[in-house]
Amino acid sequence: MKKGVILSGMRPTGSLHLGNYFGALENWVKLQNEYECYFTIVDWHALTTGYEDTSDIKNNITEMIIDWLSAGLDPEKCKIFIQSHIKEHAELHLLFSMSTPLSWLLRCPTYKDQLNQMKDRNITTYGFLGYPCLQAADILVYKADTVPVGEDQIPHVELTREIARRFNFLFKEVFPEPQSKLTKAKVLPGLDGRKMSKSYNNYIALSDSPDEIRKKASLMITDPARIRKDDPGHPEVCAVFAFHKVFNEGEVPEIEESCRGGKIGCVACKKNLANKMVEYMTPIYERRQDILTKPQMLREIVANGGEAARKVAAKTMEEVREAMKIDW
C-alpha cells in the first residue's frame, strides 16, 4: 500500500549537477517506493522567466529525462512525463486564475525576490505573476496530498492549499489540501566554495565521467590558510571536507583530526575524495551510457507516463467542470 500521492517537478534548464541530485533527485528515488509518484518536467514553468529564448528547451528536456533515469527513477514505479503534454494542467490553471485573488499572487515571496534578482529580464508578465496558479494546477490535477519541498518552498505549497480551499468553498469539495513533506537535503558547495551553479561553472554534473570527476576534484578549493602539508587545517572552510561529509561519511572524524593536526596533505585528501565520488557515481554514469544507446526508450517512457497521468488529470477535470457547472 502506498502512503499517498506525490507530485514534484523540475524546470528543464540543462544537465543536472550534484546539487540538484542531493537537493531533490536522491529523495525522489526513495519516495517512488513509498508513494504514488508523478514526476514532471515543467517546461511551461521554464517560460515564466525564459520565454524570450526557447532554443534549448527540447535538448534540456532530453538531458533531464536521461539524468532522472540514470539517477534511479524507475518508470515501473513512477510516472515520468512532460507538463505541456497534459493539456489539463493549462485548463485547471485557467480556471484557478479566475478565482485566485491578485493579492495572493503579489505577496508570493518568490515573485518579489526574483523581480529583484532578475532586473536584467522583462518578467513583469502575467505568466510570471500567475505561475503559482499553474503550480497549484500541477499538484491538484492529480489530487496530490504530499509535496516534497525544502523549507524555502513551504510558502508555495501553502498558496496551493489556499487555492484548493477556496475552490472547495466556492464550488464543491474536489481537492485535497496538500501537505509539505520537508526533505532533508545534503548540501554541497561548488568546487570553489560558493553555491554550486552552472552559471559559476563550479559544478560536477551527473553526466561527468570518472576521469572528469577526478579532474574536477583535483581543482577543488581547500583551506587557503594551509601553505605547507604540515600546517594545521580548518576543515570547516574547505569545500573538499564538505564533500567528504556526503561521500565519505565514515571517515569524516579521522579526516577532520588529520587535517587539523597537519597530518594529511590536501592532494592526498582530494585523491581519497575522488575515489569515493567515483565509486558512488559510477553506477549512475554506467546507466547513462546504456540509456544513450536507446533513444526510442525515452520517448516510450514519456509517452507511457503521459498517458497514465492524462487519465488521472482528465478524470479530475470532469469533476472540476461538474463542480463549476460548466459541463454542459
Give the topology:
Elements: E1 5-10, H1 18-31, E2 36-41, H2 43-50, H3 57-71, E3 78-82, H4 88-99, H5 102-106, H6 109-117, H7 126-129, H8 131-140, E4 146-149, H9 154-170, E5 179-182, H10 210-218, H11 239-247, H12 252-260, H13 266-291, H14 295-324
The fraction of residues in strands falls at 5-15%
Which topology of the largest domain does CATH recognise?
A: Rossmann fold
Average predicted confidence as pLDDT? 94
**Helical element count?**
14
How many strands in all? 5
What portion of residues is helical? 40-55%
CATH architecture of the largest domain: 3-Layer(aba) Sandwich
Instruction: Please mark out the parts with pLDDT under 50 across 5 or more consecutive residues, or reply none.
Output: none
Q: Looking at the structure, what is the overall shape?
A: elongated
Largest β sheet strand count, sense and barrel closure: 3 strands, parallel
Per CATH, the class of the largest domain reads Alpha Beta
What pattern of helices and strands is seen along the backbone? EHEHHEHHHHHEHEHHHHH
Number of domains: 2
* Terminal Cα span: 37 Å
**Which homologous superfamily in CATH is the superfamily of the largest domain?**
HUPs
